[in-house]
UniProtKB/TrEMBL annotation:
InterPro entries: RAYT_transposase, Transposase_17, Transposase_17_sf. GO terms for biological process: DNA transposition. It comes from Oceanisphaera psychrotolerans. Residues 13-128 form the Transposase IS200-like domain. SMART domains: Y1_Tnp. It comes from the Bacteria. NCBIfam families: REP_Tyr_transpos. This is Transposase. Signal peptide: none annotated. GO terms for molecular function: sequence-specific DNA binding; transposase activity.
Length: 149
């Protein structure tokens, strides 16, 4: 049964797989430095450790993140994204000695349908740095992961 979510028009489906996209505030390339990006990645891993969601694949680009994840049985999608954005903003801002918004308001989500090929979507996600011309081989890009490695 879906749980009503804090934002109108959204619902959280337990165990649902979502493709999440979150952009930085004004598309600023906060994560062009991979060391800064690792701080945000720590917060993805923390959510998994807290059993909020299971990360299936993700890539942190200089100005946005793509995240393929499965929501836990008890987590709210909006609350979990709010936690990620708040925690990562706090630690990244501290590291960059700045204040202000790190992420744009809101996020985009796509709840995968049963017939969609999860591995195909994961390959699309992790290939973002290749399509953006940031690297010639995905192995050269430091801010991505997938469970199928």
């Amino acid at each position: 049964m879906p749980y009503p979510d804090a934002l109108a028009g959204r619902s959280s489906l337990p165990r649902q797989i979502y493709h999440i996209t979150i952009c930085t505030h004004q598309r600023q390339p906060f994560f062009a430095n991979w060391q800064t990006g690792r701080l945000a990645v720590q917060e993805l891993k923390r959510l998994q450790d807290e059993r909020q969601a299971e990360s299936l694949a993700w890539v942190l680009m200089p100005d946005h993140i793509h995240w393929l994840m499965q929501l836990s049985e008890s987590a709210s999608l909006t609350d979990m994204i709010r936690l990620f954005k708040g925690r990562s903003a706090r630690i990244v801002n501290m590291s960059l000695e700045r204040e202000g918004r790190l992420w744009q308001r809101g996020f985009n989500e796509h709840a995968l349908r049963e017939e969609e090929d999860i591995r195909h979507i994961a390959r699309y996600i992790v290939a973002n740095p290749l399509r953006a011309g940031l690297v010639n081989r995905i192995g050269d890009y430091p801010l991505w992961d997938a469970i199928w490695l």
